[in-house]
Amino acid sequence: MGVGHGHGHAGGTTTGHAGGRHRWRLAISFAMIAAFFVVELVVGIVSGSLALISDAGHMAADVVALGAALVATKIATREDSTGRRTYGSYRAEVFASGLAALMMLGVAVYVVVEAIGRMGEDVDVETGPMLVVGLLGLLVNVAALLLLRAGAKDSLNVKGAYLEVVADTAGSVGVLAAGGLILATGNGVWDTVVAFLIGGFVAVRAVVLGREVLAVLGQHVPAGMEIEAVTASLASVDGVCDVHDLHVWTLTSGMNVATAHLVLSEGADATVALRAGQAVLREQHQIEHATLQVEGHRSTACDEVSW
After folding, report:
1. Is the dihedral of CA 157, 162, 165, 167 positive or negative?
2. Do 158 and 288 sit in the same domain of this protein?
3. Which intervals hold domain Cation efflux protein cytoplasmic (predicted)?
4. 82: closest CA among 6, 8, 10, 14?
């Protein structure tokens, strides 16, 4: 005996999708940071500041992250006209995040290699443009932070963009610190030191982001969730005597999905058990979409599956 539960995922609407409601915040932040990235890169090359160039590279990754978040909200709220995307297009955000991680790693490697190559050399850095651009960068980042903060409370997609800008704000502070140290000591080595630190910081962030992307694409159990606890919750539902073939994974940020087979005790009401199981997953584990199959006895077909 089996009772299924499923949803069609043809797409969403801007009203129902938190990221879609805050798309305008992403759009304005993207425009500001993209424009400043060009300014910072040009000034960094002209002034010879590796710290500025490294921070520009970091900001480039932020431009990609913000752009990906912006595009992902558009794709996620778009209706599926093919009928073949049964889960919608929410994974676009994950693929975009993977691209951002690769770009960040590339920037980090370039900056660290350049910093190592400069060791032992006399470095001449124009601190005036460096300090001016560093200060402007800080102001742009703070403006973006204020803009994204409200949206970060509602949407994990916007929250990811917000955290990207938080990290870039730290890079702007690093540029200002390098300029100040060079002015105070007259030693251009501080530009290289700060660039090295920024490069290391970007690399760590890239690795963390990359691992999260791979975990989603690998359909791992969502971070912070214990599969044993989910099994126990389902097993505690009245009328359920066994739980098997439980799978839980993340579709995209904030969207966890589960499937499971529930074996019922003799005389148990299948519809009541099904609804109770879905309620348990939703209320105790924040799994909004669950496809549960109820059985009068454990199916031998499940045991015969080799994977």
Report:
1. negative
2. no
3. 224-295
4. 10
One-letter amino acid at 169 equals T
Angle at Cα 10 formed by Cα 72 and Cα 62, nearest 5°? 5
Using DSSP's 3-state secondary structure scheme, residue 87 falls into strand
Q: Which sign does the torsion angle of CA 230, 235, 240, 244 carry?
A: positive
For residue 162, which of 15, 16, 19 has the smallest C-alpha distance? 19
Query: Token pair for residue 298?
Result: 């454990």
Encoding tokens for residue 150? 């409200």
**Which residues, at least 6 apart from 306, have a Cβ–Cβ distance to it below 8 Å?**
none
Of the chain, the percentage scoring pLDDT greater than 70 comes to 84
Q: Structurally, how many domains does the chain consist of?
A: 2
| Distance of alpha carbon 294 from alpha carbon 296, whole angstroms | 7
Domain extent, residue 250, equals 227-304
pLDDT in tens, 250-277: 887 778 899 999 999 988 999 999 999 9
Is the whole model's pTM more than 0.85, yes or no?
A: no
- CA atoms of 245 and 90, how far apart (whole Å): 25
Are residues 159 and 213 both part of a single domain? yes
